[in-house]
Design a protein that fits this description.
heterodimer; A: mainly alpha; 8 helices; 74% helix; B: mainly alpha; 7 helices
């Protein structure tokens, strides 16, 4: 999980206009085979530097508890933060439009080739890589727990427990979020202590 | 499919949108119940292949919803399911993030995001596990799949290569029959 120092040192940038925002989300979405999140992390944090890791992981946390697909929520939040409603629409459209055309074209083709062994082999290989990409994204972002007000080890324990409950015991997500999530929020609330809200 | 059916389809996806905490894929079992078991619009195989196609294509996994709609009622079906799954959650998310970002420094919002961050990362690991498990469980694919996963993790952590090349590598390894 070692991160080159330069990665966290450079100042953040921002998209210049709606077009750049649209194209960036279009680009990251079209690279997102088997899930957009790893590419979003790479593009927004490492390549474009529009967000730092901490901001990314916070946005991700919020977009996961909100209903709806989390990358869609992430696009909306980021677009809205840059250019308001128009930005939200531009980021969402960039993420959805081109892949929608591709996937519907594939739907038309798939029927004929689905049982071909080369096609199913390729799908298996791509599936395994998709799993690796998601795991690597999680590993990279685990470093941000260092700054968590709960303290690094407690935060890591919550991450590990969530993994066990969801991946191994297959508990319904809603109960994990309501139960463990409430506990984590309460602990963070306790550790942060009273703060003065900015006026 | 009648206009009323189409409206029902749209309405059902509107409802699922609000239940889709943790991603649209978490509501797939309920889509299956509605479209396959209850309404008989799709066969079991059509349902499963719709999800597989969306996984293999670039873009958000949510697009499987459009494929389901397309296989049910063509372009208008794709529009009904996609718009249905997006509208409520989009409106709610925008409203909630605006509310939250105005209060970003308050104790409540900070506790909320910091408390949920570890869960988010645990969930991400769980997603990786659930995606990997079907391959790793089968002895025939186990070592090839584990190798690909390890290569993907290492390359992502050590280099700035686009993930797309890794996916291409995975497809190649699969075509060669090593996975």
């Amino acid at each position: 999980m070692s991160v080159p120092a330069s990665e966290t040192m450079l100042p953040l940038a921002a998209p210049a206009n709606l077009r750049e925002l649209f194209l960036a989300f279009n680009r990251l979405s079209l690279q997102g085979f088997g899930g957009v999140l790893p590419v979003a992390q790479r593009e927004l944090v490492e390549r474009k530097r529009w967000l730092d890791k901490q901001q990314f992981v916070e946005m991700l946390a919020v977009s996961q508890v909100l209903p709806g697909p989390n990358v869609v929520n992430l696009a909306l939040m980021f677009g809205d933060r840059c250019f308001g409603l128009r930005g939200a629409v531009a980021a969402l459209a960039g993420m959805m439009l081109a892949p929608l055309v591709v996937v519907l074209a594939l739907t038309a083709l798939y029927g004929q080739y689905s049982h071909h062994p080369l096609v199913s082999g390729a799908l298996r290989g791509m599936g395994a890589v998709a799993a690796g990409l998601v795991i690597s994204t999680a590993l990279k972002l685990l470093g941000t727990l260092r700054h968590n007000p709960m303290g690094r080890w407690l935060a890591l324990a919550f991450a590990a427990l969530t993994f066990v409950l969801v991946a191994l015991l297959r508990l319904p997500l809603v109960w994990v979020v309501l139960g463990l999530g409430s506990l984590a929020i309460a602990l963070a609330w306790h550790r942060i202590g009273p703060t003065e809200p900015p006026k | 499919m009648t206009g009323a059916d189409l409206l029902g389809l749209f309405g059902h996806f509107l409802l699922l949108s609000l239940l889709a905490v943790g991603g649209a894929i978490t509501t797939a079992p309920d889509m299956h119940r509605y479209m396959v078991t209850e309404q008989h619009w799709l066969t079991d195989a059509q349902f499963t292949s719709s999800i597989a196609i969306a996984q293999a294509a670039p873009g958000p996994n949510l697009l499987f919803v459009a494929v389901l709609g397309w296989n049910t009622a063509g372009p208008i079906g794709a529009f009904a399911t996609t718009a249905g799954i997006l509208l409520p959650s989009t409106v709610l998310s925008l409203w909630a993030t605006r509310w939250g970002s105005q209060r970003r420094e308050t104790r409540f919002v900070r506790s909320f995001t910091n408390g949920l961050t570890p869960l988010t990362l645990g969930l991400l690991l769980a997603t990786g596990w659930i995606l990997a498990e079907p391959y790793v469980r089968v002895a025939q694919y186990r070592w090839g799949a584990l190798g690909l996963i390890a290569v993907a993790v290492l390359v992502m952590l050590r280099t700035k290569l686009s993930p797309m090349w890794l996916v291409a590598l995975g497809a190649l390894v699969g075509v060669l029959g090593w996975v």
